[in-house]
Design a protein that fits this description.
Chain A has a domain of about 100 residues: Immunoglobulin-like (Sandwich). In chain A, about 15% of the residues lie in helices and about 35% in strands. In chain A, the strands form two sheets. In chain A, strands 2-3-9-8-5 form a five-stranded mixed beta sheet, with no helix packed on it. Chain A has a four-stranded antiparallel beta sheet with strand order 1-4-7-6, with no helix packed on it. Chain A starts with a helix and ends in a 13-residue tail after the last strand. Chain B has two domains: about 260 residues, no CATH class; about 230 residues, no CATH class. Helix content of chain B is about 80%, strand content about 0%. Chain B is built from 22 helices and no strands. In chain B, α2 packs across α6, α3 crosses α5 and α5 crosses α11. The radius of gyration of chain B is 28 Å and the shape is globular. Classes of the chains: A alpha+beta, B mainly alpha. Chains A and B meet through α1 and β6 of A and α9, α14, α15 and α21 of B.
Chain lengths: ~150, ~525
Amino acid sequence: MNKMVVLFLAMILSVLSIMGIAVFGTAPESGSREPVRAILIDDFDDLNSAGDMFKDVGYIVDLNNNLFTFHYALEPIKAGADIRVSASPSSAVNVQIDPVEQMVYVFFNDPSRRPMVTITLRDVRTENSVALTLWFKPSGHVDVPDLD
Amino acid sequence: MLKRLYVLCLMQLSNKMDLKLARSKRFLARVALRALVIVLMTIVMTMVLHVIGNILYIPVNNYFIIFVLLITQGISIAAATNGLMTDLYKSRDNQILHALPVNNDEIFLSKLIVYSLNEFMKNLYVLIPLLFAFGFVNQLHPVYYVNMIPMVIILPLLSVGFAALLSMPLSMFRNFLSDKNILTFILTVVLIGVLFGLTVTLVNRIPTPIRIVQLYNRFIIQLTLIMQSSASYGLIYTVIGHMLFGINIVVNYLIVLATLLGLALTVMGFSKPLYFKLASQSQEFAVKKIHVKSNRREKSLFMTFLRKEWIIAKRSVNQLISDYALLIALPFFMVVLNTIYMGMNRSTTGNQLVIIFNVFIVLLLVTASNTASASAITTEGSEFILLKAAPSDTRWMAWAKIAFNLIFSSLVLTFSFLLFTLVLPVFPTVDIWLLYGLVIILNSAHIFWSFQIDLLNPRLSDYAMTGSLSGNPNIRESISSGFVISLLFGAISALLFFTMRPLAWPVLYMLALIFAVFRLYFFRSFLRTYFIDIEY
């Protein structure tokens, strides 16, 4: 046993101690917070008749920048939430969530393929969810208004 | 010139490897074994990348590989700089090489070539498997694998080139500091202070109450964002990353080759006036003895030996810092860990766990710092003969060495715990000082134990011959015994704090005192009996 081994042991033990206290030694969260009624996303371009939200990321994401971020909000603001995020297809992006800042980070694995990806936010406690579809609008694409 | 370079390289390589082996079957067997290691490493790396991508959820894309290149090459440059500072300027073969009918430039260049070959071999086992694994995981185009081949040669050349350039000013700085112990000490203290300040600032930025899952999410996001942005600052390594993925391939190849050429010219340009000067500078006459020689009579033999320890400590600050490095690291550990502990919304069990983990981790670091006592007699080396021949009771030397270790470690511990109370006012002060008292008692007991280990088995002749303590079994035994003490008292404190909380501290103190008295008694007995029998 030498000093490097002791240092390594101390580091491992430190991490384990933090995990141990987090699992066995923390007080339960206050259950008095209201449940989530809705998860809101403002940053979208289109909304279809089924209520699905669409966002064109073609002018943000390219070969030099593969990151798209958007903000979400909870209703009520101080609701007790456990928000999970998923993407479909999952192979096209790596999606991460910061529940403190209420931000979602979408890293496109290969922006040159210009994939269409649906990001879903779901509250585990109430099963409320919201989805935002990210797509790359082709150049020359014109939105035709629905005459009906 | 080329022939001389070739001979110089062969001479140095023959020191590091068995060149006669190159035409034998054993050589082929060794190559096959190494190829197998590379294949196994590739499989391991593939699994690691899968874990990173699918479990830790960090994106394994081209930014990831640029970031990994930056980190691995940074480490490689740091290690090569350290290695080259010895190999180029302090190596023992310099005396032979500089006596040969060759130019200094040729010696310098041959050393760099030999070092680059070593770096190339190291890269084979880490970087190449990683790049292969990355290609498999992302199912990359064959062009990626073709571009990997020149990388295997270019990357070691770049890291050795940068390291050679850095080694020159750093060696000059090292030579400048070599006879200025006080300045070295002040710089070390300032550096530790700055690092401590940075640690506290970073730890204070963690939002409270700390929720580990959220913290983990934020950590992964920040890490991913750092990876993304590192490509903007990666300079030549970003260019290499783009080259690997076939982006602007001709332009990027030209940039890399121009950088290599520019680096080589800069290194050779600086080495011309500096290399021989640095390689031939000896420290033999560097120490300027400015103190006035006077014989000072101490009141007792103990004080004489204690003063000697103080003088040795003053003259070898680096050794002192190396001996107590873990003790110096203690405030960092305590502040970071306890800030995180205090940031969590703890239950009563959590508060008890905090104290138990503090007992274990603090004892682990403190007891591993008593290596000076575990080598106290050994480091006397051949000088021990003089002690044996002195017409006095030289056993006092042992008490003086123990006193120095006790005083120094207690001072650092007091400073650490004072910092602890100042930085973390939310931690119960009574528990902090009770922990301090317990650590001081157990540390004293461990110092007696460590000294006893060296007393019973001093390695005087080994140290006299090599001048080195590397691989010293007494030091290993001292650290292991410290680990046993930490484990034992960690377990006892867990038992006491969970079953009889009000009595936990008194019982712990009682056990620690019994242990310390027991170790002191044994140390005194062994010192009386065996000190006289120690032979060089």
